[in-house]
Write a structure and sequence with these properties.
Blueprint: H1 9-12, H2 17-23, H3 49-56, H4 71-84, E1 88-92, H5 95-104, E2 112-116, H6 121-133, E3 137-141, H7 146-152, E4 157-163, H8 175-184, E5 188-192, H9 197-200, E6 210-214, H10 216-220, E7 228-232, H11 234-248, H12 254-264, H13 267-285, E8 291-293, H14 303-309, E9 316-320, H15 324-334, E10 339-340, E11 350-352, H16 364-370, E12 376-380, H17 386-399
Parallel strand pairs: 2-3, 2-4, 4-5, 5-6, 10-11
Antiparallel strand pairs: 1-7, 6-7, 8-9, 9-12, 11-12
Helix pairs in contact: 2-4, 4-12, 5-6, 13-17, 15-17
Length: 402
């Protein structure tokens, strides 16, 4: 009996997520390799000219060009779609390539978008700067309040766009409520799920239409490559998203796809252990700093909502110091184990000062409205022993008078 490799969705969708993350979408060549192959090719050959014409016309199954299809990338797309519970997925060269493409592919001059206030700095640049250049109107709301989403709807509103948990303030959006509001009005919801991943949260289960990722983060999980992904219906991915990306070229490389495939094999283990570590570190830090935000703590203002939507609190926490940028930078400089880095999702613990790094391109007024203050720090808790991270923070906090 021929072994199943991961292509038959009637079988793979019955697997549990940990199994899907290891085997979903796998295609083996005639060599029978166990680890997925890297297909480093830009183009593909045809047996005859008629075959080439048929493939470009969509009348024959097969690859045409790696800006559109690549076997390594296709395996990753199928695996991510399987984990997400989506009909289809397409991968991009970075998370921001995914966010940019998923908005521009469906918005035109005269359309209106509503977005959550708390977001990665580059995502706020998209909504506040790029989209208006093309005549696309945008409204920013406090994503935590469903009534603000409803009040912002106009006759030309086409998309709701938000992160939950949000970067870096860890705002939680009520997925069922906001997606329900959008669906009643015929509006498409795009959810950035990078902080949670499909292992901790599945926005499609709450009514979301599209889920987007920086796969650079937890999916790779070891700080090696850039990648992005967009998940949705087969119709949206093939008729709307693919039409945009095939002509604009935000393509993921075969090598990066292979690296993320390897990262996904340990995603279930990593995100659960890192969430456990983050909770332990958060409990240590909470009494030592003026304000600490972590969805897994009862002190988080939206803890109950977060725990209804998520299986765990995730790997990220944010803390606020009263001493502004001077004290925040001082704490960063005093850390010996935890690296100063603006990446997240890494197996290493990383910390950054958003106001001077990830959100530095936004005005002080916008940062203030988002909750990104000069005394704010964002921590990605890694796979180190949590007691070593705690001891590092204990020394560093004492060094800055905390």
């Amino acid at each position: 009996m021929k072994k199943h490799t991961g292509q038959d969705r009637s079988i793979t969708q019955t697997w549990r997520p940990a199994t899907q993350a290891v085997r979903g979408g796998t295609v083996r060549s005639h060599f029978g390799e166990t680890s997925e192959a890297i297909y480093l090719t830009s183009g593909y050959a045809y047996d005859c000219a008629a075959d080439a014409a048929a493939r470009f016309a969509g009348e024959q199954v097969g690859m045409t060009y790696s800006r559109l299809q690549n076997p390594s990338v296709e395996m990753l797309e199928q695996r991510i779609a399987l984990l997400e519970g989506a009909e289809a997925a397409r991968c991009t060269a970075s998370g921001m390539a995914a966010m940019t493409a998923v908005l521009l592919c469906q918005l035109s001059q005269g359309d209106h978008l509503v977005a959550g206030r708390a977001a990665f700095g580059s995502c706020r640049w998209l909504t506040d700067t790029l989209l208006p250049r093309f005549g696309i109107e945008t409204t920013i709301v406090d994503g935590r309040d469903p009534d603000q989403w409803k009040a912002a709807i106009r006759p030309n509103t086409k998309v709701f766009f938000f992160e939950t948990p949000a970067n870096p303030t860890l705002d939680i959006v009520d997925l069922a409520a906001v997606c329900g509001i959008a669906r009643e009005a015929g509006i498409t919801t795009v959810v950035d799920n990078a902080f949670a991943t499909p292992l901790l949260q599945k926005p499609l289960d709450y009514g979301a239409d599209i889920v987007a990722y920086s796969a650079t983060k937890m999916m790779d999980g070891q700080g090696r490559v850039l990648a992005g992904a967009v998940c949705g219906t087969q119709e949206f991915i093939e008729k709307t998203f693919l039409a945009f990306t095939r002509n604009t070229g935000p393509t993921l490389s075969a090598f990066n796809a292979w690296v993320v495939l390897k990262g996904l094999e340990t995603l279930d283990l990593r995100i659960r252990r890192q969430s456990e570590n983050a909770l332990k570190v958060a409990r240590f830090l909470e009494p030592r700093v003026p304000t600490l935000l972590y969805p897994g703590l009862a002190s988080h203002p939206q803890h109950e909502l977060a725990m209804r939507q998520m299986d765990a609190g995730g790997t990220i926490l944010s803390l606020y110091l009263d001493g502004g940028r001077t004290q925040a930078h001082g704490l960063l400089d005093a850390l010996q184990l935890v690296d100063i880095s603006n990446n997240i999702g890494d197996s290493r613990s990383l910390m950054t000062h958003p106001a001077s790094t990830t959100h530095a391109g936004l005005s002080a007024e916008v940062r203030e409205s988002m909750g990104v203050t000069e005394g704010m720090l964002r921590l990605n808790v890694g796979l180190e022993h949590p007691d070593d991270v705690i001891e590092d923070f204990d020394r560093a906090l004492k060094a800055v008078g905390l």
